[in-house]
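Can't paste images in this forum, so I'm doing it all in text. The chain is below; anyone willing to post the predicted structure tokens underneath?
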Amino acid sequence: MKGIGGKPGWAWIFILEGLLTVLFGIASIWMVHDFPDEATFLTPVDRARVIRRLKMDQQSSAEHEEFKMKYVWMAVKDYKMWLGMVIYMGCDMPLYAFSLFLPSIITQMGYTSTRAQLLSVPPYALAACGTIAVGYIADRTRQRGLCNIVVSFLGIAGFAMLLASDDPHVKYAGTFIGALGIYPCISNTISWVSNNIEGTYKRGVVLGFVIGWGNLNGISGVENYVGEGE
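Text version of the structure:
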């Protein structure tokens, strides 16, 4: 698509992905329902089953809950939200740096174009498998904090390889271990925070703060990457 509309090819990647996100966001107004009893795509039997499971899990989202400003203040005053922000910050900061330096490492190995793009896939594929495995273990053991601690040691080992070696092949191997230490913590931390917050709207506010703060810390990861490059 290079040259179409007077824009370079890389710009169209962001334009098309952004448009797709906007379209799905608009569609979610009708497709995503606030409460199970409003979900038109469920049969009456399925709707009753979902509500029963939520009640068994002691989730207030099983019933209608009106929004009130007090839920915002309850979230702000809950220390678990601030702890969640700090934990998620530690997950997201290396995530952004990882995404940035992986292409540079592959380029240092002598690969370019399509082959370089393909070689960027395996670390993410391994991380996806690790995320599913850690999620399963965390759900079964109910030890999300301990799971975070264990996989974080993998992240430390992977980033140590990236810092200690100038060999691009060693660095590439380090990205596999680093990815295993980063990505499982992302979903596990969000689930952990969500499990410890009761109330639909309070939980929404807390997750907004946690995820928003974590994403803002990606700026630090980018700055550190640029500084290393200079």
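The chain has one domain: 69-229. DSSP finds ten helices and no strands in the chain.
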